[in-house]
Amino acid sequence: MSSNFLSRPVDVSKFGLIFAGAQKNVGCAGVTVVIVREDLLGHALKECPIVLDYKVQVEMNSLYNTPPCFSIYIMSLVLEWIKNNGGSAAMETLNKQKSSIIYDIINASNGFYVCPVDSACRSRMNVPFRVGKKEGDEALEKKFLEGASKRGMISLKGHRSVGGMRASLYNAVTLEDTEALADYMREFLKEHQ
Question: Which of 29, 119, 165, 183 has the most Cβ atoms closer than 10 angstroms to its Cβ?
């Protein structure tokens, strides 16, 4: 798991192992959360590095190697914040609300904004979209990013393999932040359509 970790409730009993790069919703880059079903402990492959032998990790109380203390501390603060704000169920409600705001603008833009992902497969965490037309308009996308930057909105440029825009709506992104992006998208649409 990565982007979706702690963005919604998950029945961990349905998994033998969850390996989550938690930097998206839970803490600093480099923090990893591993949840292993007890009956799977002690079944590491001989070629497997000892750090990935979870029986060893359990026996050493997760201290086989020097842990990233500051990152773990930050993660504990984030987990406390999630708990105090209603837990993963509340995060799911908030993430549905935030992603709906952006997808609704895209869907109502008459093709000015286009999400290349089928609606049944869309992410609540990352909303990719093109500006101007289905395959994107390079000049308009550049203008969009420049205008966003002037408003303090950074990192909207899409993944290098996909292009376009990508609005990341991780747990730390507030409803107000999402509304600010939505307002800008409406303004940009009105000005350039």
Answer: 165
